[in-house]
Amino acid sequence: MANETLRPATPEERRRGFATTRPPDAVQRYSTGERLTHWAVALAYVVLFLSGLALFHPFFYWLSLGFGTPTFMRILHPFVGVALAVLFAAYAARLWRENLLLPSDRAWMRGALGYVNGREETPVEGKYNAGQKAMYWSMIVMILGLLVTGILVWRPYFAPSVPLLGRRIAMVIHAIFAFIMFVGIGIHIYAAIWTRGSVRAMTRGWVTRRWARYHHPGWYDRMSRREPVR
Ligand code: HEM
């Protein structure tokens, strides 16, 4: 399977691999519901990122103008945070099984540098490679951490019943988690754009057979058993 996966593409496959219209034998990767949830999470993240920066430091205060008034932005930020957590929980609940760690993920991690340089050294067994799984689990930790610390400092609802020291510690952890999430999402977006055909999987829902066989051969095999290759 590995040799089949890593052999160079034929001109026909290359054409189909970069197709922009759905080939008749395309493989479905995401349902409409999954895509809508993912992009709703992404939109919520952009709102949180911009408002969070404006709240974090006066240097970014001008960003609050995009929300109408700074007061409205401050009220909006925690509500959007809760919305992101709920949407992400719905999205993550559909994906958890495919993100369970497999023994081959360790080997993939060791060859991750090769992957970055465009060489798939370790065939991926599941729907996601170990890098994507790391992103999935770290986002769960980060979003949970941001939700809990955010609630602790949420005025006027919860903050008044939290001691000052508790609120201060929560605020520092909130900022650290937000920064880690920013780096993680940055890598996620970079990898999505750089892996040709990935963004289309999340916008249109399908990938070409060549894409599936090259990036996720184990998942492709499983899909092929269900829908025979033409
Ligand atoms: C606007 C920026 C974003 C872009 C361009 C983007 C792009 C993508 C693409 C193309 C995929 C499909 C990858 C594949 O199936 O191989 C994907 C999957 C995924 N995205 Fe995003 N995404 C964005 C924002 C986010 C945000 C904000 C989150 C979470 C907070 C997120 C969480 C995920 C997760 C969990 C997956 C499933 C794959 C995995 O476990 O890594 N994405 N994204």
Q: How would you describe what is shown here?
A:
This protein has eleven helices and two strands; from the N terminus they run ααβαααααααβαα. It is mostly helical and 230 residues long. It has one domain (27-226): Transmembrane di-heme cytochromes, Chain C (Fumarate Reductase Cytochrome B subunit, Up-down Bundle), CATH 1.20.950.20. A two-stranded antiparallel sheet has the order 1-2. The chain is elongated. The two termini are 18 Å apart. Residues 1-6 have low confidence and may be disordered. The structure holds protoporphyrin IX containing FE. Protoporphyrin IX containing FE (HEM) binds at residues 29, 38, 41-42, 45, 88, 95, 99, 128, 132, 135-136, 139, 185, 188-189, 192, 198-199, 201-202.
In short:
The protein is 67% helix and 2% strand. It is mainly alpha-helical and 230 residues long.
Order of helices and strands: HHEHHHHHHHEHH
Which ligands appear in the coordinates?
A: protoporphyrin IX containing FE
Structural class: mainly alpha
CATH topology group: Fumarate Reductase Cytochrome B subunit
Q: Give the CATH class.
A: Mainly Alpha
- What is the percent of helical residues? 55-70%
State the strand order across the main sheet. Answer: 1-2
Quick one: overall form? elongated
Query: In percent, how much strand structure appears in the residues?
Result: under 5%
Top keywords for this entry?
elongated, 230 residues, two-stranded antiparallel sheet, binds protoporphyrin IX containing FE, mainly alpha, disordered N terminus
